[in-house]
Amino acid sequence: MSQPVAQEKIRKAPTSVPDRLFSSLSQASAATILLLLSGVAFFLTVVGWSGIFGDIEGMSGSDSFVEYVGPLVFGTVYAATLALLIATPLAFAVALFISHYAPRRLAQTLGYVVDLLAAIPSVVFGIWGITVVAPLLSKNVYPWANDNLSFIPFFSGTASTSGRTMLTAGMVLAMMILPIITAISREVFLQTPRLHEEASLALGATKWEMIRQAVIPYGRSGVISGAMLGLGRALGETMAVAIILSPSDGYFWSILTNQNSNTIASNIALKFPEAYGLDVNRLIATGLVLFLLSFGVNMLARRVANSGFSGAAG
Amino acid sequence: MTANSEIDMPAQTAGTTHSEETSVEPVIAVNNLNIYYDKFLAVRDVTMEIASRSITALIGPSGCGKSTFLRSLNRMHEVIPKAHVDGVVQLNGEDIYRPDVDPVTVRRRIGMVFQRPNPFPTMSIYENVLAGMRLNANRLSKPDADEIVERSLTGANLWGEVKDRLDNPGSSLSGGQQQRLCIARAIAVEPEVLLMDEPCSALDPISTMAIEALMEQLKDQFTIVIVTHNMQQAARVSERTAFFNIDEPGQPGHIVEMDLTEKMFSNPQEKATSDYVTGRFG
Questions:
Q1: What confidence tens digit (pLDDT) does each residue in B189-220 have?
Q2: CB A258 within 8 Å of CB A18
Q3: Fold for the domain defined by B5-9+22-120+193-277
Q4: CB-CB under 8 Å, B131 with A314
Q5: ipTM value greater than 0.95
Q6: Which residue of chain A is at minimal alpha-carbon distance from B104?
Q7: Residue B190 gets which letter from DSSP?
Q8: CATH superfamily of A68-306
Q9: Which residues of chain B have a CB within 8 Å of the CB of A202?
Q10: Which of A196, A220, A309 is opposite residue B118, by nearest beta carbon?
């Protein structure tokens, strides 16, 4: 107490300039993220407000907002779910192959190639979908599925000859979300403790039995959160769907026909250039709905990833 | 620990003769076994017989190849790519390294307990015990499963402590209990031999005592081979002891001497053994 000068010296320990600079930079970055997110949410809400509650007379069509956005939400969720159903088993198998079956060099190459898939712009996927996948499927697969499986409602209706169907969109979306699901699954499979694998092998497990007993239970929550992240990406995907899908207004369960519910993002991309007046607000309001949908999925993914029912968390 | 004095007796009385000359039928017979990791010779030229229903301890300094040797007895060392052996290991007269033998079937007959307790974290205590029984597409009726769980947990001295919470996860137990759960899991499939790779090295002294007491009971039914860093443990629990050593780092480990435990600790033939058991190195 009698030596305030000395204390001052200790308190003002040599904080170097780079130290402080980095600290404030990272704080500013964190603040920017929050600001951006709340800014987007604010914009969507304010501008979208009149699209939801505004005068229907001023908009094209005579639907209320719920009637307008309903089929879009349905289409969005439907396409993303289809993509997820196709991509998850595939990603699961590829990840297991990379982590436990492939020789090291092949595993590395394969992992790299799968990661590269994520670097392809979505518009390229769209063009690939419309020029390659759609004609291929509509010629070889859809007629057969339509003939033989039409007792299942999903395959009923008149099969599209252009291939611009919900199924094609779902498959191309699946290719796009494959990398993230594969990468995350691969990582958790690789993290299975050697002790657990050996415990299983020492009991006389075959390789597949060992994987079922030790690896899959351990990696389950990782695979689920990977799938959720993929779902989040599929929900917001715009260009590929906009290029491939032949949209109609309404709810359609059939996945082989030319009549498909559009997705929110694709609908915005297609209609925004020509929209004016309150139609713009309505499109932005659908964006708000998509924002909330993705937000919910991400929250769910986080919840699942942190939940205690996996070995990784316990 | 208790009431096992009569079990200790044969070892005591047999102390005057060499182990190799006793009339006990060997369960495992190892002949000129060399163990390689790729091109590196890790253990050279082991010849050994392991007597039925007894405890055989493998001791030696770190890196002498005793764990590698143990793992070669149920072909677990093969989980490391390019590990291989030459020589013969016979289990009740059958060569387990014959080309047409699947390591999976070997491991079903020779169980293993590891250094650190490794119950499956996603399974309940009940399911952990049955993990080995669920393999091989085995279908178990509920009464059979219950019976196996009770018998195995009783055999592992754990039944009384866990019988009211069989549905709890295996990881909810203490370290010593987890290790006994792993022993229960290993004996549930009724193996002919139980290999233990330093089973107490991660445990506190009280849990260690519990495991040692358990081993005394288990040897009535199973042939046990234990690797231990702890010479006192080898002296306490085993009938026979094999001493492994390396000449210098990078050289292959080899067996220096094997004999009745009592003799190994009181009057070993080799100077290296006596130096090791008296704590002069290692």
A1: 999 999 999 999 888 898 899 899 999 999 99
A2: no
A3: Rossmann fold (3.40.50)
A4: no
A5: no
A6: A204
A7: -
A8: MetI-like (1.10.3720.10)
A9: 74, 76, 107, 111-112, 114, 186
A10: A196
- How far apart CA B115 and CA B255 sit, in angstroms, is 22
Q: Which residues of A touch B (CB under 8 A)?
A: 193, 195-206, 209, 213-214, 217-218, 220, 309-311, 314
Distance between CA atoms of residues A304 and A306, nearest Å: 5
* Beta carbons of B121 and A206 less than 8 Å apart: no
* Cα A268-A273-A276 angle, rounded to 5 deg: 95
> CA-CA distance, A284 to A277, in Å (whole number)?
12
Q: Which chain A residues touch B76 with a CB distance below 8 Å? A: 198, 201-202
pTM for the complete prediction?
A: 0.80
pLDDT in tens, B228-265: 988 999 999 999 999 999 988 889 999 999 999 999 99
Contact B121 A314 (CB under 8 A): yes
3-state secondary structure B225-239: EEECCCHHHHHHHCC
Is A247 within 8 Å of A168 (Cβ atoms)?
Answer: no
Q: Where are the domains of chain B?
A: 5-9+22-120+193-277
